[in-house]
Amino acid sequence: MKIDWFTHFLHLLFPQSCVVCGGRLLSQDKYVCFHCKAEMPLVRDRLLKGNEVEQRFWGQLPIERASSLFYYIHENNYRRIVIQLKYNGQEEIGEVMGKYMADGLLQTDFFEGIEVIIPVPLHPKKRKLRGYNQSECIALGVSKATNIPLDTVTVERKVANVTQTHKNHQERWDNVENIFAVIYPERIQGKHILLIDDVLTTGATLLSCAGEISKVSGVKISILTLAFVP
Fold it and tell me: 25-47, pLDDT tens digit by residue?
């Protein structure tokens, strides 16, 4: 109770702002206000099998299932969630949104049979520069909501490729070719993996990472991202 009162007191002294609309947050809100959560442009069929996120991977790599929380549109303020997480040091947003995303999917069988969560890794140099891996932050929230263990060591990014931002479709594919490696295949052999990233655009990065994981005997792969570019 003391902690609750102290948190409320801090909110009164230092009111927090919604990352989407800039409005004041209530003490029970975290990063996104109640109104903006209610109006969030959710991927409309995200809870259904064969949704548009899954279709992004059809014909490219066998996956069990896929989903994303909301549409990432440049003209929409909801992209600020990703920007604050990825570029402005607001790493806790990832965990908060990961929990929120997982809570919605828990009403379905999306997590059924999944044995381990792997976030798409950053190269060590980039992680050191940013201070954290934004995909790992999201994955941590999902892990806490589902009690599925998080694995951040089995897969590594061996090449410090440049950002995918502003690259065209072919350039994105060329930029992520052969940049991942599975270091401890015995840890995931025969398991169902949930691969998590922040934004799904062309799917190039996720497919490159999933492609390496799929070389391990008996693995199954599902994919989850916070945002989806339609």
Answer: 998 899 999 999 999 999 999 99
3-class SS of residue 95: helix
Angle at alpha carbon of residue 38, lines to 35 and 39, rounded to 5° = 90
Percent of the chain with pLDDT over 70: 87
What's the token pair of residue 59? 């014909």
Q: Are 130 and 122 in contact (CB under 8 A)?
A: yes
Please tell me the distance from the alpha carbon of residue 44 to that of residue 42, in angstroms, as a whole number. Answer: 6
Burial 128-138, CB ≥16 within 10 A → b, else e: eeeeebbbbbb
**Number of CB atoms found within 10 A of residue 197's CB:** 22
Determine contact, residues 86/134, Cβ cutoff 8 Å.
yes
- d(CA 99, CA 145) in angstroms, rounded, equals 5
Short-list 184, 177, 185, CA closest to 208? 177
